[in-house]
Amino acid sequence: MRINVHAGHNPDGMTACGAIGLIKESTEARAVKDRVIAQLVSMGHTVRDCTCNNGTSQNDILQKIVAACNAQEADLDISIHFNAGAQPEADGHTTGTEVYVYSTSSAATAYAQRVVDSIAALGFRNRGVKERQSLYVLRHTKAPAMLIECCFVDDPEDVALYNADRMAAAIVAGIMGQTTETTADAAKLAAMSQAEFVDWIGKLSAEDMKTSGILASVTAAQSILESGYGKSELALNALNMGGMKAELSGNTWPSAWDGKMYTKDTAEQEPDGTYITIKADFRAYSSVAAYLADHSAYLTGAKDGEKLRYAGIVGCKDYRKAFQIIKDGGYATSLDYVDKLCAVVEKWNLTRYDCATPIGQSEIYWLSAADVFTEAEADAVKVQLEQTWPGLNLLKRRGIVTKVY
């Protein structure tokens, strides 16, 4: 999308700088605006900042904002403000949020409704979408426009609840028709370095391994390779880290996917090594955790006829064998898919995440201390181990560890 975003009014200390209460409208509108732009840009949208910082009067500010908005074609204009005029004494209730549009028949109305609902989900009273034809920006911008009143600067409950990061995430979620969890994950992906992404997805994969039985190194490597370290179009816009298409094995396997899709061009490799580009529907997820759960459910439950498509993947302790199972099952068309994934595992030492918990083991065996110590020394080591690792006794009580020699 092509989106114009601006904060209302001049900067603080200048003429027409907006409402002042427990917080300042100009300061917070700019804080939210900056975060909204950063998130939208990270998701691949074209965004222009039309904020005015040098207006000589209220009318001059409005004219400069509109001129900036109308200087290029846009799909949506977003004006960010904060309201005033609330009950100044704490009464246990927020005064809330509202969004203005020029006309309820405007194309902006659907976006406005989602935005106000998304902000209200943070805990603010939902004052709804309102028609306001007297507002200069709404009246004069060419693109569909909405003016967001995030909350009230003079309401103690509003101010206590307000947070610029959460407010921006709610606005972006509303624009995109997503949840705040979705936009928060997308923003996190956009901000992470490669090393940060590897550690994050590695730990999430280790948690997934506890229930799926699929090596964390396998899940993590696929996410890293397929998503380009979380920076691919599909990752940022659909939180789909592994190229999971909408139609997989007839969708006859257990899946918690809610049916939302993201359509994009994708390159597929032919058996002769050449590539073709096709337009495909991919699964869109509410969070990276939701993707991981669905990805593992697919690998463990998808069928090819009456047989499991990826038979042997659960409990496989060799990542190369696991990748070959995935390739043979038809997960990817790339001829060197297995080698690429192995290279990722080895580059980042992803097998370290495979040690998070033993799979298919009911008992942990320890090397006998008597092999290297005298009996007295071994008894001392055993006592020290039990004292310095409280979790050992818990494991013994649960029957996971049965003996410490």
What would you note in describing this structure?
With 405 residues, the chain is of the alpha/beta class. It is 43% helix and 15% strand. The protein has 15 helices and ten strands. It has helices at 25-42, 58-70, 108-120, 136-140, 156-161, 164-176, 180-191, 194-212, 216-227, 233-238, 288-301, 319-328, 337-348, 375-388, 390-397; strands spanning 2-7, 46-49, 76-83, 97-101, 126-131, 145-152, 261-269, 275-283, 303-304, 307-308. The strands form three sheets. It has a six-stranded mixed beta sheet, with helices on both faces. It has a two-stranded antiparallel sheet with strand order 7-8. Strand 4 (97-101), helix 3 (108-120) and strand 5 (126-131) form a beta-alpha-beta unit. Helix 3 (108-120) packs antiparallel against helix 6 (164-176), helix 9 (216-227) crosses helix 13 and helix 12 (319-328) packs antiparallel against helix 13 (337-348). The longest helix has 19 residues, at 194-212. The chain is elongated, with a radius of gyration of 27 Å. The N and C termini lie far apart (65 Å). 41% of the residues are buried. Mean pLDDT is 87; it is low at 357-371 and 394-405.
